[in-house]
UniProtKB/TrEMBL annotation:
Transmembrane stretches, start-end: none
Name of this chain's protein: Alpha-galactosidase
Key word NAD present: no
A Pfam family reported for this protein in Swiss-Prot or TrEMBL: Melibiase
Amino acid sequence: METIAEIQTSDETVVHEQGWQSWSPSTTYRLGAAPHRPVDEDKRLIAYRHTTAPAPGTYCGEGLFAVAEGDSVTLFAATDPTAEVPTILAVRAGDRLVISANGSVEIRQHTGDIPGALAAWADEVCARLAVPAPRPAPTGWCSWYEYFTDVTADDIVDNLEAMEDLQLPIDVVQVDDGYQREVGDWLVPSGRFPDVPGLFAHIRDHGRRAGIWTAPFLVAERSELLAEHPDWLVGKENPVRVGHNWGQQLYALDTTHPGARDYLRTVFTTFAEWGIDYHKIDFVYAGAVPGRRHAGVSGIEAYRSGLELIREVIGPDAYLLGCGAPQLPSIGMVDAMRVSPDIALEYAPGSGDLSQPAQLGAVLNGESRRFQHGRFWVNDPDCIVARPAVEHRIEWAEHISTSGGLRASSDGLRGLDSWGLDTTHRLLAEPIPSHFV
Ligand code: 9PG
């Protein structure tokens, strides 16, 4: 860490952190307020950057950090955000704030507000890297937030029929986690999905596009993938742990290993043969963790080569949504990006960890990352949930309307009351602004 700036502070000073990946807390604090940090090691490994563990009271941005006083903003930004993402730390020393970083950071002065400073920087990055303007997103329905991993093929068919009956303007039916037997074994169906290709054909016969969830760079402890190919893991014989979920340890696929790359090709080619042309690729932070790989490249280079491979196989017209994804390293590589932790029925996370499912963390991240929308990609603020059980559904609908580029419903559609149905219809049908900042 090298000191890169010292800033005189006052009672009016605020600091702004951008986190590593989709779920990493990102927001603005009054100086002195405690920053949002992980509360347990497994979630830290999932939702936060592996190389970063700031001391208590230290503010921290991954490649992006801002300090503002009134309309004077100092922005600290990674010089080369898709190659190297320095961690930027800020600690108080008396009435000064000492900023340090472990890589190349550009310091920019801006008059206005923090979102405006971030947007001006993002415009320059897009011009410099020739990032094409994002395509308009299709509308969707996603199985996750009603059925979670218990989803069945019948649930999908039931909602497919419901969206027809209710005349909802939904382009894509996206099957989330639960169709596969294990995380990593994407072509092995769970018992609740007797005919996966048949189900996708059925979706298309109903005039909708077919979408699927994968976590392509994740290898779970119980998977056949791990049993058969332990040499495909990042870290080799000492595999790097990337968290714990679904009641098991999680490891990372080495996207530079020729065998692993062939496997990814087979999976996504098979999906294309099934008529799937919308992909929610999740937990992709795993592809970027530091560790030993077949090709001696950095985590970020390995991550980008994994995304390039997926894009090459699915083709330019398929729609690619990143989730659990390092933000800056994904610039130019996805059509849409989840910018937040998961929505949930609850307003505040019971665990106290803002990276975990709850409306509060989803809203803070969605607001802090509005500047990305229409520049790097289409922002996905997470799904529309409008059923009565959502604690603060009016506020969630308002959030989607004011920061949602991607619009996907994720309720059991037959369980919606009239407010829920009207709101879902409105959010799916309303025009999407090209920018929110
Ligand atoms: C499927 C889900 C949904 C959801 C994704 C992702 O343990 N964790 O920290 C954790 C974070 C997010 C998460 C699951 C676990 O949700 O965001 O939309 O696709 O995976 O499993």
